[in-house]
Amino acid sequence: MTDLEPKHTKKLEFNLLFGLVILFFLCAAALLGLIWTPYDPKFQNFAVQLQGPSWAHWLGTDNLGRDTLSRLLLGSSTSVLVGVISVGIGSSLGLLLGLISGWLGGIIDDIVMRILDALSAFPTILLALLIAVVLRPNIWSAMLAVGISSIPTFARLTRAGVIATKNLDFIDSARALGARDARLVFRHVLPNIASALIVQATFAFSVAILAEAALSYLGLGIQPPAPSWGVMLRDAQTFIYQSSWATIFPGLTIAITVLGLNLLGDGLRDRLDPKN
Q1: In a 10 Å sphere around its CB, with 0-12 CB exposed, 13-18 middle and 19+ buried, how is residue 248 labelled?
Q2: How far apart are CA 271 and CA 265, in angstroms?
Q3: Whether domain 10-34+66-272 has CATH 1.10.3720.10
Q4: Helix, strand, coil percent values for the chain (each to nearest 5)
Q5: Is 79 within 8 Å of 229 (Cβ atoms)?
Q6: Do residues 246 and 232 lie in contact, with contact meaning Cβ atoms separated by under 8 Å?
Q7: In the prediction, which pLDDT does 8 show?
Q8: What residues have CB less than 8 Å from 180, skipping those under 6 apart?
Q9: pTM flag (> 0.90)
């Protein structure tokens, strides 16, 4: 048993470290993309269409001669914005519904859970289609669709934590000392389930980035000429045989980012687990 523990610990440390490095580079790229890019991400130079990596364009150019690195940098800002806003929507509303459902129980719990079941029946893509009909396809409808689709996960996780915690001895002791429900929930219950919510937010962040790329690829998210990783893949797919670089770099960026955030979630989950 003792021989396996160091290997397990090293795996946890690698996951956490790798995830933190990816998160750092993602945030750094997003910040850099807002203040500086090698070229104007929207500038079209037809003289350098579909070029591979070079000293002038480190990651090559797309079918309209736009610099791929510049568009990836600005696209990372979009991905971080979508991730933060959508996770904020999903976690805040899910937390509220989970607290109400788990703490009050009874018929309130049944009503909230049926609403969540109905919401879970709508896939993110279908939900985005419905929202796009009302708001038209743009970054805000994409964030709203991704955020709403993540509400049931946060709500169920919060509800399970509240139910597991609200009948423990220290809650009964605090109630006997005169603590009201609001104090019990926010002072005693929430701190005990915060670690699980933090881990879920990390996973939801990676899902949001992937969902935004998928929605933009389908034309339901970021609209051209604004750069987005999904838009870059969609624009490059027609010219994949002329120049594969235009698809390789956005695809790798999405894959590495999602992998890193998932490993970060794994590392945080194991690090915050009191059993470890």
Answers
A1: middle
A2: 10
A3: yes
A4: 75, 0, 25
A5: yes
A6: yes
A7: 57
A8: none
A9: no
DSSP 118: H
Q: What is the Cα–Cα distance from 109 to 224, expressed in whole angstroms?
A: 44
Counted residue by residue, the chain has a size of: 276
Which H or E element spans position 250?
helix 245-272
Q: DSSP readout, 155-224?
A: HHHHHHHHHHHTTSHHHHHHHHTT--HHHIIIIIIHHHHHHHHHHHHHHHHHHHHHHHHHHHHTTSSSPT
Opening angle at CA 197, ends 182 and 123, nearest 5: 110
Q: The tokens 């990816």 sit on which residue?
A: 22
**Assigned token pair, 266:** 């794994």
Instruction: List the beta bridge partners of residue 61.
Output: 67
First CA to last CA across the chain, in angstroms?
A: 14
pLDDT at 1 over 50: no
Residue showing tokens 């915050």: 272
Q: Which residue has the tokens 């955030």?
A: 261
pLDDT digits (tens, 9 = 90+) for 69-120: 999 999 999 999 999 999 999 999 999 999 999 999 889 999 999 999 998 8
Q: How far is it, in rounded angstroms, from Cα 184 to Cα 70?
A: 50
